[in-house]
Predict the 3D structure of the following.
Amino acid sequence: MAEASPQKTKIRTILVSQPKPEPGERPPLVELGNRYGVKVDFRPFIEVKGISAREFRKARIALGEYPAVIFNSKNAVDHYFRLCEEMRVEVDPETRYFCISDNVGHYLQRYTQLRKRKIAFGKGKLEDLLPQMLKHKEIAYLMPCSDALSESFLVKAEESGLNITKAVMFQTVSSDLSDLADIKYDVLCFFSPMGIKSLYENFPDFVQNETKIAALGTQTHEAVIQRGLRLDIAAPTPEFPSLVMAIEACLKKPFK
């Protein structure tokens, strides 16, 4: 990816390392770009590849034996129900669901009818779910996830006496971004350490210079810093709970 040329006045272009919104969707970053006259492009830096039912069977995990399921992403929801269907596992309507956020929880409606007493929502962190999970400490939990799942939550859950089985159902791999080699952006937005990894797998000689790096989440922040990059826009923070708010604050002032 080409180095961004210095901008003395304002941010003009933003690249979001996520898939392009579905038709009809108006993500907050797009609305923000429209308000400030900034071009916002979307391009996923990572791709998700589902594990086949045949490969999953090697883990010897009986999907139908878990009365509670933890979801930390929409991908986890998709691949859990996909494997249930492929393996002809009937999902018990009494299954309890623990979702990292409202957004992920409501996404469940694509696959099952939501029942208030059977679903719990976090506020964007898996740790938010622990108090609610501890109310059902006696049951076994299943956590569909990718091969890149951080172990920190599982360690905390185990220390709390919870019984959680990690079930790898999909893998994350770097996308081919070679067509972006000669394109310049003022801001690059990242949402996971895998996005940073993909940046360097595609552009090993990447130099930040005046390009601003925006990152969401502590682990993403750490990945940025470990690469020796400058973290210009960070969220969540006490001042900026969301990345959109942090970027807007940056848009209101010129580059220094």
